[in-house]
Write a structure and sequence with these properties.
Length: 80
């Protein structure tokens, strides 16, 4: 006698619903990982942009800001 499918005796829509839930969870995890990668890439891009204008010297504990270049490129510098 052949083996019956694993869903034998179960409500087929509920089995399909469980599969849909699993797919949805996996999709959400993938989206979460993709969102994390996107956020990291955006932060990296912003830091690269800022590094053109700002230099930090940990030894002398000074921050050098090229205010003139930032203004020329359309940025507004507010220090408080």
């Amino acid at each position: 006698m052949p083996k019956l499918p694993a869903i034998y005796g179960q409500n087929i829509p509920s089995v399909l619903g469980q599969q849909n839930v699993a797919l949805t969870i996996n999709h959400q995890i993938d989206n979460g990982q993709n969102m994390e990668k996107l956020i990291k890439a955006l932060i990296e891009d912003h830091l690269v942009q800022l590094s053109h204008y700002i230099q930090m010297n940990q030894m002398t504990r000074t921050v050098l800001i090229d205010h003139t270049s930032m203004k020329a490129d359309g940025y507004q510098v507010i220090i408080h």
